[in-house]
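We keep the chain:
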Amino acid sequence: MKDSVLALLIMFWLAGLTGVGVAQTDVKTIGTFGEPELVFDGFQFTEGPADDGHGNLYFTDIPANRIYQITDGKKNVFVEPSLHCNGLMIDGAGQLLACQMDGQLVAYDTATQKSTVLAGAYKGARFNACNDLVVDRRGGVYFTDPHYRAPDPLPQGTTAFYYRANDGTITRLGDDLDAPNGIILSPDEKTLYVVPSQQKQVMAYQIQSPGQISKGHVFFEMEQKQPGGNSGGDGLTVDRAGNLYITTGLGLQVVSPGGKLLGVIELPQQPANVTFGGEDQKILYVTARTGLYQIASPIAGHRFTGSVKSN
Protein backbone atom coordinates (compact mmCIF):
# COMPACT_ATOMS: atom_id res chain seq x y z
CA MET A 1 0.00 0.00 0.00
CA LYS A 2 2.79 2.40 0.96
CA ASP A 3 4.62 1.58 -2.29
CA SER A 4 1.56 2.38 -4.39
CA VAL A 5 1.00 5.69 -2.61
CA LEU A 6 4.69 6.57 -3.06
CA ALA A 7 4.49 5.71 -6.76
CA LEU A 8 1.43 7.93 -7.14
CA LEU A 9 3.17 10.84 -5.42
CA ILE A 10 6.21 10.44 -7.67
CA MET A 11 3.95 10.40 -10.74
CA PHE A 12 2.31 13.69 -9.71
CA TRP A 13 5.72 15.21 -8.96
CA LEU A 14 7.00 14.24 -12.42
CA ALA A 15 3.88 15.66 -13.99
CA GLY A 16 4.56 18.96 -12.25
CA LEU A 17 8.07 18.99 -13.67
CA THR A 18 7.03 18.22 -17.23
CA GLY A 19 3.82 20.24 -17.32
CA VAL A 20 1.95 17.16 -18.56
CA GLY A 21 -1.31 16.42 -16.78
CA VAL A 22 -1.86 13.02 -15.20
CA ALA A 23 -5.55 13.25 -14.32
CA GLN A 24 -7.90 12.21 -17.09
CA THR A 25 -11.37 13.24 -18.11
CA ASP A 26 -13.97 10.56 -18.68
CA VAL A 27 -16.80 11.50 -21.02
CA LYS A 28 -19.72 9.16 -20.58
CA THR A 29 -20.06 6.39 -23.21
CA ILE A 30 -17.06 7.54 -25.30
CA GLY A 31 -14.09 6.72 -23.07
CA THR A 32 -11.23 8.38 -21.25
CA PHE A 33 -9.69 11.59 -22.57
CA GLY A 34 -6.25 12.78 -21.59
CA GLU A 35 -5.64 15.97 -19.66
CA PRO A 36 -5.09 19.06 -21.87
CA GLU A 37 -1.39 19.61 -22.67
CA LEU A 38 -0.06 22.98 -23.77
CA VAL A 39 1.66 22.77 -27.16
CA PHE A 40 2.47 26.45 -27.77
CA ASP A 41 1.57 29.67 -25.98
CA GLY A 42 2.13 33.42 -26.31
CA PHE A 43 -0.39 34.25 -29.03
CA GLN A 44 -3.02 37.00 -29.07
CA PHE A 45 -6.16 34.98 -29.95
CA THR A 46 -5.86 31.54 -31.53
CA GLU A 47 -8.47 30.00 -33.82
CA GLY A 48 -9.10 27.62 -36.70
CA PRO A 49 -7.01 24.47 -36.07
CA ALA A 50 -6.79 22.21 -39.15
CA ASP A 51 -4.80 18.97 -39.51
CA ASP A 52 -3.81 17.67 -42.95
CA GLY A 53 -3.34 14.03 -41.95
CA HIS A 54 0.33 14.15 -42.99
CA GLY A 55 1.92 15.59 -39.89
CA ASN A 56 1.09 19.25 -40.42
CA LEU A 57 -1.21 21.35 -38.25
CA TYR A 58 -2.41 24.83 -39.16
CA PHE A 59 -4.06 27.43 -36.94
CA THR A 60 -4.66 31.16 -36.92
CA ASP A 61 -3.86 34.08 -34.65
CA ILE A 62 -6.54 36.56 -35.67
CA PRO A 63 -5.23 39.85 -34.19
CA ALA A 64 -1.68 39.02 -35.30
CA ASN A 65 -3.01 38.53 -38.86
CA ARG A 66 -1.19 35.21 -39.26
CA ILE A 67 -1.67 31.57 -40.10
CA TYR A 68 0.80 29.25 -38.38
CA GLN A 69 1.99 25.81 -39.44
CA ILE A 70 3.38 23.18 -37.09
CA THR A 71 5.59 20.50 -38.64
CA ASP A 72 7.76 18.06 -36.66
CA GLY A 73 6.98 19.99 -33.51
CA LYS A 74 8.27 23.28 -34.97
CA LYS A 75 6.09 26.36 -35.38
CA ASN A 76 6.42 28.56 -38.47
CA VAL A 77 4.45 31.45 -39.94
CA PHE A 78 2.62 30.03 -42.96
CA VAL A 79 0.94 33.24 -44.19
CA GLU A 80 1.24 36.89 -43.13
CA PRO A 81 -0.88 38.93 -43.56
CA SER A 82 -3.77 36.47 -43.54
CA LEU A 83 -6.52 39.11 -43.82
CA HIS A 84 -7.53 38.02 -40.31
CA CYS A 85 -8.20 34.37 -41.08
CA ASN A 86 -10.42 32.54 -38.63
CA GLY A 87 -11.73 29.03 -39.38
CA LEU A 88 -9.62 26.64 -41.49
CA MET A 89 -10.07 23.19 -43.02
CA ILE A 90 -7.95 20.98 -45.28
CA ASP A 91 -9.92 19.56 -48.22
CA GLY A 92 -9.40 16.27 -50.05
CA ALA A 93 -6.99 17.87 -52.52
CA GLY A 94 -4.75 19.13 -49.72
CA GLN A 95 -5.78 22.76 -50.07
CA LEU A 96 -6.09 24.87 -46.94
CA LEU A 97 -9.55 26.43 -47.02
CA ALA A 98 -9.81 29.59 -44.95
CA CYS A 99 -12.40 32.10 -43.76
CA GLN A 100 -10.89 35.56 -43.98
CA MET A 101 -12.67 37.94 -41.63
CA ASP A 102 -11.84 40.73 -44.07
CA GLY A 103 -14.74 39.41 -46.12
CA GLN A 104 -14.00 36.34 -48.22
CA LEU A 105 -13.54 32.57 -48.42
CA VAL A 106 -10.23 31.44 -49.95
CA ALA A 107 -8.15 28.35 -50.72
CA TYR A 108 -4.38 28.27 -50.09
CA ASP A 109 -1.92 26.11 -51.96
CA THR A 110 0.09 24.70 -49.03
CA ALA A 111 3.24 24.39 -51.16
CA THR A 112 3.29 27.97 -52.48
CA GLN A 113 1.06 29.83 -49.99
CA LYS A 114 -0.78 31.28 -53.00
CA SER A 115 -4.45 32.01 -52.29
CA THR A 116 -7.44 31.78 -54.59
CA VAL A 117 -10.73 33.51 -53.77
CA LEU A 118 -13.59 31.03 -53.63
CA ALA A 119 -16.30 33.43 -52.49
CA GLY A 120 -15.81 37.18 -52.19
CA ALA A 121 -19.30 38.63 -52.51
CA TYR A 122 -22.99 37.85 -52.44
CA LYS A 123 -25.44 39.91 -54.52
CA GLY A 124 -22.76 42.47 -55.26
CA ALA A 125 -21.59 43.09 -51.70
CA ARG A 126 -18.62 41.65 -49.82
CA PHE A 127 -19.28 39.29 -46.95
CA ASN A 128 -19.35 40.68 -43.42
CA ALA A 129 -16.57 38.63 -41.79
CA CYS A 130 -16.41 34.97 -42.82
CA ASN A 131 -15.90 32.87 -39.71
CA ASP A 132 -16.06 29.07 -39.98
CA LEU A 133 -16.54 26.42 -42.66
CA VAL A 134 -16.96 22.76 -43.55
CA VAL A 135 -16.54 21.04 -46.93
CA ASP A 136 -18.90 18.29 -48.15
CA ARG A 137 -17.98 15.24 -50.23
CA ARG A 138 -18.97 17.04 -53.45
CA GLY A 139 -16.54 19.87 -52.78
CA GLY A 140 -19.19 22.34 -51.68
CA VAL A 141 -18.44 24.61 -48.73
CA TYR A 142 -20.85 25.61 -45.97
CA PHE A 143 -19.65 28.73 -44.17
CA THR A 144 -20.83 31.27 -41.62
CA ASP A 145 -20.75 35.06 -41.87
CA PRO A 146 -21.49 36.82 -38.56
CA HIS A 147 -20.53 40.39 -37.64
CA TYR A 148 -17.23 40.09 -35.75
CA ARG A 149 -14.61 42.44 -37.28
CA ALA A 150 -17.17 43.46 -39.93
CA PRO A 151 -17.68 47.05 -41.16
CA ASP A 152 -20.62 49.02 -39.80
CA PRO A 153 -23.16 48.94 -41.32
CA LEU A 154 -22.89 45.27 -42.25
CA PRO A 155 -22.11 44.81 -45.96
CA GLN A 156 -24.69 42.02 -46.14
CA GLY A 157 -27.18 43.81 -43.93
CA THR A 158 -27.58 40.70 -41.80
CA THR A 159 -25.66 37.80 -40.31
CA ALA A 160 -26.12 34.52 -42.16
CA PHE A 161 -24.65 31.22 -43.33
CA TYR A 162 -24.08 30.15 -46.92
CA TYR A 163 -23.24 27.32 -49.32
CA ARG A 164 -20.62 27.68 -52.02
CA ALA A 165 -21.19 24.93 -54.63
CA ASN A 166 -18.26 23.48 -56.55
CA ASP A 167 -19.30 25.45 -59.63
CA GLY A 168 -18.91 28.68 -57.67
CA THR A 169 -22.63 29.32 -57.12
CA ILE A 170 -23.35 30.84 -53.70
CA THR A 171 -26.64 30.35 -51.84
CA ARG A 172 -27.71 32.02 -48.62
CA LEU A 173 -29.17 29.29 -46.41
CA GLY A 174 -30.23 31.11 -43.26
CA ASP A 175 -30.27 34.60 -41.78
CA ASP A 176 -32.38 34.14 -38.66
CA LEU A 177 -29.66 33.23 -36.15
CA ASP A 178 -27.98 35.63 -33.76
CA ALA A 179 -24.32 35.51 -34.86
CA PRO A 180 -23.98 32.09 -36.60
CA ASN A 181 -20.44 30.96 -35.85
CA GLY A 182 -19.32 27.31 -35.80
CA ILE A 183 -20.55 24.99 -38.56
CA ILE A 184 -20.06 21.26 -39.20
CA LEU A 185 -21.68 18.30 -40.96
CA SER A 186 -22.51 14.92 -39.49
CA PRO A 187 -20.23 12.12 -40.76
CA ASP A 188 -22.96 10.87 -43.12
CA GLU A 189 -23.47 14.47 -44.30
CA LYS A 190 -27.21 14.25 -43.76
CA THR A 191 -27.27 16.92 -41.04
CA LEU A 192 -25.76 20.41 -40.86
CA TYR A 193 -25.09 21.87 -37.41
CA VAL A 194 -24.71 25.60 -36.74
CA VAL A 195 -23.51 27.02 -33.42
CA PRO A 196 -24.53 30.64 -32.73
CA SER A 197 -22.40 32.82 -30.47
CA GLN A 198 -25.19 34.86 -28.91
CA GLN A 199 -27.80 32.25 -28.12
CA LYS A 200 -27.56 28.89 -26.38
CA GLN A 201 -29.48 26.88 -28.98
CA VAL A 202 -27.38 24.77 -31.37
CA MET A 203 -29.36 24.35 -34.57
CA ALA A 204 -29.61 21.31 -36.85
CA TYR A 205 -30.75 21.23 -40.48
CA GLN A 206 -31.44 18.20 -42.64
CA ILE A 207 -29.54 18.20 -45.94
CA GLN A 208 -32.10 17.71 -48.69
CA SER A 209 -29.50 18.06 -51.44
CA PRO A 210 -26.17 19.93 -51.63
CA GLY A 211 -26.88 23.50 -50.55
CA GLN A 212 -30.53 22.77 -49.87
CA ILE A 213 -31.60 22.39 -46.23
CA SER A 214 -34.77 21.87 -44.24
CA LYS A 215 -36.14 24.30 -41.68
CA GLY A 216 -33.89 24.20 -38.65
CA HIS A 217 -34.70 22.75 -35.27
CA VAL A 218 -33.03 23.11 -31.88
CA PHE A 219 -30.62 20.21 -31.57
CA PHE A 220 -29.08 21.06 -28.19
CA GLU A 221 -29.05 23.86 -25.63
CA MET A 222 -25.56 24.61 -24.39
CA GLU A 223 -24.93 24.39 -20.65
CA GLN A 224 -24.48 27.78 -19.03
CA LYS A 225 -22.10 29.20 -16.44
CA GLN A 226 -24.96 31.03 -14.76
CA PRO A 227 -28.56 29.83 -14.32
CA GLY A 228 -30.79 31.41 -16.93
CA GLY A 229 -27.85 32.41 -19.12
CA ASN A 230 -28.02 32.52 -22.89
CA SER A 231 -24.37 32.32 -23.92
CA GLY A 232 -23.53 30.65 -27.21
CA GLY A 233 -20.53 28.73 -28.49
CA ASP A 234 -17.79 29.12 -31.05
CA GLY A 235 -16.18 26.40 -33.19
CA LEU A 236 -16.76 22.66 -33.14
CA THR A 237 -15.68 19.33 -34.56
CA VAL A 238 -17.14 15.84 -34.90
CA ASP A 239 -15.81 12.33 -34.25
CA ARG A 240 -16.37 9.25 -36.39
CA ALA A 241 -19.40 8.26 -34.27
CA GLY A 242 -21.07 11.61 -34.84
CA ASN A 243 -20.46 13.12 -31.39
CA LEU A 244 -19.98 16.89 -31.44
CA TYR A 245 -17.29 18.78 -29.51
CA ILE A 246 -18.46 22.38 -29.05
CA THR A 247 -16.22 25.13 -27.68
CA THR A 248 -18.01 27.13 -24.97
CA GLY A 249 -17.31 29.16 -21.86
CA LEU A 250 -17.36 25.93 -19.83
CA GLY A 251 -14.93 24.08 -22.10
CA LEU A 252 -15.63 21.45 -24.76
CA GLN A 253 -19.25 20.39 -24.42
CA VAL A 254 -19.45 16.87 -25.87
CA VAL A 255 -22.85 16.07 -27.35
CA SER A 256 -24.18 12.79 -28.75
CA PRO A 257 -25.81 12.56 -32.20
CA GLY A 258 -29.09 12.44 -30.33
CA GLY A 259 -28.51 15.83 -28.73
CA LYS A 260 -27.57 14.58 -25.24
CA LEU A 261 -24.76 16.19 -23.25
CA LEU A 262 -22.18 13.48 -22.54
CA GLY A 263 -19.76 15.62 -20.56
CA VAL A 264 -17.55 18.70 -20.51
CA ILE A 265 -13.81 18.67 -21.12
CA GLU A 266 -12.33 21.62 -19.23
CA LEU A 267 -9.27 23.56 -20.36
CA PRO A 268 -6.95 26.09 -18.70
CA GLN A 269 -8.25 28.80 -21.07
CA GLN A 270 -11.61 29.27 -22.77
CA PRO A 271 -11.54 27.40 -26.09
CA ALA A 272 -12.41 29.02 -29.40
CA ASN A 273 -12.13 26.09 -31.84
CA VAL A 274 -11.17 22.44 -32.02
CA THR A 275 -10.25 19.71 -34.52
CA PHE A 276 -9.05 16.13 -34.58
CA GLY A 277 -5.57 15.34 -35.84
CA GLY A 278 -2.52 13.17 -35.42
CA GLU A 279 -1.54 10.04 -37.31
CA ASP A 280 -4.64 8.12 -36.18
CA GLN A 281 -6.92 11.16 -35.78
CA LYS A 282 -7.01 10.60 -32.03
CA ILE A 283 -5.68 13.94 -30.84
CA LEU A 284 -7.99 16.86 -30.14
CA TYR A 285 -6.21 20.11 -30.98
CA VAL A 286 -7.84 23.05 -29.23
CA THR A 287 -7.17 26.74 -29.80
CA ALA A 288 -7.85 28.58 -26.55
CA ARG A 289 -7.12 32.30 -26.30
CA THR A 290 -3.31 32.62 -26.11
CA GLY A 291 -2.56 28.91 -26.35
CA LEU A 292 -2.77 25.78 -28.46
CA TYR A 293 -3.57 22.58 -26.53
CA GLN A 294 -3.76 18.89 -27.33
CA ILE A 295 -5.88 16.20 -25.70
CA ALA A 296 -5.52 12.45 -26.25
CA SER A 297 -8.83 10.99 -27.43
CA PRO A 298 -10.14 7.41 -27.17
CA ILE A 299 -12.04 7.85 -30.43
CA ALA A 300 -10.91 9.06 -33.84
CA GLY A 301 -12.24 12.16 -35.49
CA HIS A 302 -14.10 12.28 -38.77
CA ARG A 303 -12.22 13.68 -41.76
CA PHE A 304 -14.04 15.49 -44.55
CA THR A 305 -12.56 14.55 -47.93
CA GLY A 306 -14.36 16.62 -50.55
CA SER A 307 -12.13 18.56 -52.98
CA VAL A 308 -12.96 22.18 -53.76
CA LYS A 309 -12.57 23.56 -57.28
CA SER A 310 -11.64 27.19 -57.79
CA ASN A 311 -13.28 28.97 -60.71
Residues 1-23 have pLDDT under 50 and may be disordered. The domain at 24-296 is CATH 2.120.10.30 (Neuraminidase). DSSP finds one helix and 29 strands in the chain. The helical segments are 2-18.
